[in-house]
């Protein structure tokens, strides 16, 4: 089996590792080996690889306090443990590990409510990851049918955040 990591997958992997208490991690592919070792008590964290990782491999970190990412809707069948899923709905999933926020600020109205009509490119929520606020934008037009996550709740990569009925 061949393993390939694209830039986005590498970013998600490193973000997940940064937020975890994992101290050693090794991933090998046909043409690469990624090894992450860290000691949480010191600043001697390190990443080693037998293939040099250049700035073209990893984009520089975002400096603004808010950035935009696309929320990729997934139309696959959810695991059997997800009750009440309907095949006519599009699931908006978390593209990263982070904290889910329904509104741009504590005193501001939510981006969407159940029953809201949304368009392609419209912000539907914010995921905070490593102190960066990332607006998730819808890739489909439709109506919000379900919001499955409470405001301020930590979410996992791939977790269903909301379901939309496409129009």
Q: Would you kindly provide a written description of the structure presented here, covering whatever features stand out?
A:
This protein has 167 residues and is mainly beta. The chain has 2 domains: 7-49, no CATH class; 66-166, RNA polymerase II/Efflux pump adaptor protein, barrel-sandwich hybrid domain (OB fold (Dihydrolipoamide Acetyltransferase, E2P), Beta Barrel), CATH 2.40.50. It has one helix at residues 7-19, and strands at 24-28, 33-37, 46-49, 66-70, 73-74, 90-93, 98-101, 117-118, 123-129, 132-137, 142-147, 153-155, 160-166. The longest helix has 13 residues, at 7-19.
For the structure shown, list the relevant keywords.
167 residues; mainly beta; OB fold (Dihydrolipoamide Acetyltransferase, E2P); 5-stranded antiparallel β-sheet; 13 strands; globular
Strand order of the largest sheet: 4-10-9-7-12
CATH topology of the largest domain: OB fold (Dihydrolipoamide Acetyltransferase, E2P)
Rg, rounded, reads 18 Å
Structural class: mainly beta
* Main sheet: strands, sense, barrel: 5 strands, mixed
Number of helices: 1
From the coordinates shown, what is the CATH architecture of the largest domain? Beta Barrel
Task: Categorize the overall geometry.
Answer: globular
Order of helices and strands: HEEEEEEEEEEEEE
Overall tally of structural domains: 2
Content of β-strand: 35-45%
Mean pLDDT: 75
> Into which percent range does the helicity of residues fall?
under 10%
Overall number of strands: 13
Output the CATH class name of the largest domain. Mainly Beta
Span of the ends, CA to CA: 39 Å
| The CATH H-level homologous superfamily of the largest domain | RNA polymerase II/Efflux pump adaptor protein, barrel-sandwich hybrid domain
